[in-house]
Every structure is written in structure tokens, then in C-alpha cells.
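Ticket #4471: structure export looks truncated?
Reporter: QA, pipeline team
Priority: medium

Steps to reproduce: submit the single chain below to the structure queue and open the exported record.
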Amino acid sequence: MSIFVALVGLGLLIFVHECGHFFVSLVLRMRPRRFYIGFPPAVVKTTRNGIEYGIGAIPLGGFVKIPGMHRPAPADVESHFARALTEAPELAGPVDRMRRLLAAGDMEAAKEGVPALRSAAAERQLSQQARAAVDRGLVDIDDALGPDAYWRAPTWKRVLVIFAGPAANIVLALVLFTALFMTAGGKATTTVSSVDEKKPAYSAGLRAGDRIVEINGESVSASEISGTISSSNGRPLTLTVRRDGTLVTLGPVAAEKTESGAYRLGFVLAGEGLSLPSATGEAFRVTGLVTKEIGASLGRLVTGDGRNEISSPVGIVQGSSEAAKQGADSYVWVLALISLSIALLNLLPLLPLDGGHIAFAIVEGIRGRSVGREIYERVSVVGIALVLILFFIGLTNDIDRLS
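Actual output as written to the record:
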């Protein structure tokens, strides 16, 4: 059940990300053609007001198809009509005319020539595969030549549409952090919220709802509990707790050393909710700290020191599942962290990530003209290769952790 909850949470984060692209593109009049969670083939799909909504069979992300992401090029015609030309050579004339118009940059004439090319293709006997490729190509070329095409829009519109996806994830993370700080994640109390069943505290008899009064006979406040346990350096500790109005002595029990070097007994203290302004401030503070740490981890990866910090979707689902087992607060906290991570990783200046599209939009805005398609393709190959390397490093780490 926890795996299902984790998958639903990851799907929610992808949905929020794509909603950012979708709604901002609508507002800026770059009407999307498709909105998918997952990648095709579609498991379920429906069309409303000219927009196809669907859930793909490959659950590795999602996408919003905005018309004309790239300036149309002769290669677009060649790729879609290659099979049709072998089956119906008489299409060579209208296809070559469209190719020449796109090569010359005469977009208005090319737009006017789409109906003629469509009519010529409709009159020919083509196989199902060739027909599908031609129909898809005609739609893509017609969209790319339309007034609402992405490549025609001003630079600021293009940047906004692309940045809206990561921005939606950042906003969601801030909302989730704020909600946690307003409920149970604010100022710590002396009351135990949860106890890890695999840790020393559970073995010693500590239970959720216990209120810690003393450690080794010394009274402790909420802010002193963690420091006292950490400074024990593994020496046995005796806890005095108030349970159902009665004082109970637990231990002695030794704290375990964690990977970070701190000593912990394995329990979480309940938090006292903050006001909305204070919770919002804390949410921004945590977001800044996490952003700084993610940036540092990427820097360490370049030097070869941060390899073990990378995780794949397998590890993300596994971590979310473990958090779900620990309670709603832990799950929401991890969900917020993943949402922020998705946003920051998508802002890396690599194609096909959002950051790559933003970088190219700015470069084209400065140049005053589009970057050649061949440059897009070469940079995309490098970007995809780097993303795949990160994926396989994360997958290897996750397999090692799971085994």
C-alpha cells in the first residue's frame, strides 16, 4: 500500500509540473495540443476543445505538447514523408516544394502550401504506417507555422512558459513546508511523536505519546534533548518519561551513530505549530537550505565525490514509501523535498530539460534569430547522454541500497 501511495505522490508532482507549463501557455496564447502524465502509448486518453489529455503507459514523467517548439525545417518534411515517397513517388513534387519554402525561410508561403500537400497525400494509396507518419507530420508542420507557435513568441513569453513547470514545483514545496510548520513541524516539544521500531529507543520501551522529563537524572527542555543524546557518544542513557500521568524510567540504552556522525536513539519529537507568517518564513528558509545543498551535491558530482547522493525514480519511490510508513508528516516532508528537487534538476541548462530550453530562448533573443536545428540536435544528444548517465548512476545506487 505504501508503494502505491508513493507512486501517487510522484504522479502528483509530475502533474503539478505539467500544469505549470499548461496553464501559463494557455494564458500566453500558446494553445497546447496534448497534456500527458507518463509517455505514450496512451493507456487512457480523451480530447476536449482540441486538446488531447492522456495517461501514458511509460510512467517516467509527463509532457505538454506546445505547438512549434522549434522553427520548422526541411528535415521535418523529410522525416515524416520518407516512407510515403517510396510508396508514392509522385508526391516528390509537392514535398520538394514545401522543403524549399522552409529552407528559404518563407513561412507564409509554406503555411499556404500545407493544404495542397495534405490534398496530394490524401489522393495517394499509402500503407497504414506511411499514412500515420504523413498525418502526424502535416499536423506538426501546420502547428509550427501557426501564429501561436512557441518559436514565434517573444523571448519573455517563451521563458515564462518553460519556467512555469519548475516554478509550480517550487510553489508546491513551499506550500507543503508551510503546512507542516503550521501543524506539527514547528517548535519542538518534549512529547514523542514517533519511534522507529528498528532503533534503540523502541527496544528500551519508548513509545509515541511519552513526554521526556529527564535524561540521566537531569531535567531537559525540548531544545536540549537532541544535543544531550548526541553528546553521549554512545554511552548508555537513562530516560525518565511521563506516561499516562506516571513517571517511567527507561534504559539504560546506548544511542547509535548515524551516517552523519551524530548519535541518535531513533525517535521524533512532536512539533508545535507556528503562525502563518512564521511558518512561511521557515518554509522559505528550508527551501533555501535544500537548494544550496542540492547545488553543492551537483558540484561534488562533477569532482566525483557526490556519486552516492544521486537517486533514480526507483529510489525516490522507495524513499517515499518508507516515509509513508512513518506517518503523514514524514511523507509530506519527503514529497516537498522531491518536488523541490524536480524543479532544481529541471532548471539545469541541458536539453531536453526545461533549463536547456530557457537557455536557448535567451540566446535566440540576444541573437535576434533562431539557432539552427542541427545545433539543437547536437546539444540535445549531449544533454540526453548526461541525463541517462545520472539516471544509471542513481539506479545503481538504489540497487545497492535495496540489496
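Status: closed, not a bug. The export was complete when the record was re-opened. Leaving a note from the reviewer for reference: The chain has three domains: 74-144, 188-272, 276-402.
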